[in-house]
Amino acid sequence: MKILFVVNSMDVGGVQSGIMAFGEIVPPDIHIDVLNLTEKIGFHEEAFAKYGKVFHIKTLQGENKYSKTFSLFFNNLIIEKNFDRFLKYHEYDVIHSKSMAYSATIMKVAKKHNIPVRVAQAHVDKPEHLSPIHKFYYKNCSKTIENNATHKLAVSEKAADLMFGEFGGRVIKNPTVSLKKFDHNKYNPAPHTSINLIQVGTYSKRKNQCFSVEILKELTDMGEDVRLIFVGYTFDDLTYFEKVQKTVKDLNLSEKVVFLPKDTDMPQALADSDYMLLPSLREGLPNVALEAQAMGVPVFLTDTIFRNTNCGLCVFLPLNKGPKYWAYEILKYRQEKGNEKTYPNMADWDNEFVVKEYIKIWENS
Predict the structure, then answer these.
(1) Which residues pair with 259 in a beta bridge?
(2) Which domains does the chain have, with CATH numbers?
(3) pLDDT, tens digit, 9 for 90 and up, residues 298-338
(4) What's the whole-model pTM score?
């Protein structure tokens, strides 16, 4: 069986980590390739080469919200033309699109080429405020997907609502946690007396790292010895990364914040951490929250995030109550639960288990 994943890029992220998990776990009789909807070489591409081929379609990359909106519509024409040409020379049994914006076009072209199994999967939750033009766009996309996809999957109900609208889709877990990799028995935390906070993710307004810095400030003002670790990647949003750095400097917290690179040893970084912060404005299913829980790290995250994320160590908090409220809740949790780490049963989230569910879908069984 030959599978083609279609993604916006193979840079660092939950979607891409999932694809790497597929490459590692699928049996030898299943071959997987990846088609990137960008000419940019992604972080995971070199590593993925041992599993399959990586292809690219060049698309427009908007630099601001106006050009991004324009490119959203124009790129569908580019993708339709080039993907049609691509499928004339490459045969697949399954097309599995993980692109929120362009799955409709991918499904349409895949059906034209009589691909037996056509999967559209949603990974990002519907935001609270969607502009009229984006509402129009996704409503039309949902109709196209309904008419052309054989399977509609989503990591949450909110993600399904954004991509599939009134037609709905099946909620399914994304390959997220390798319990072999995130095995707390293999890692010893570095000795520390401070409260070590960690946030992992792309530096962006959506991930809201500046809010985490403000939590650090509140805890410091309360007299607590706290450190904040960021593990992140700037992609093209260097402006927000600079804003985070400026916030740290303006609040005189430079000695309390550490910026680690994207290729950091994540299990060890989590072993060294006491709590994870995830004050995102919106998320799909945050892989990092699951990885943290596998390592026994409680997660404080926005209350709009998918509740299925909780394996027993999640605390959902409203953003509108501000960083001081979050700081108090962290200290309250620490007082009530103590410092000893506990480890929830996450067998249902293990990649080995989840990938088998996808294979059933690809086999159309």
Answers:
(1) 230
(2) 2-176+350-362 (3.40.50.2000), 184-337 (3.40.50.2000)
(3) 999 999 887 888 999 999 999 999 999 999 999 999 999 98
(4) 0.76
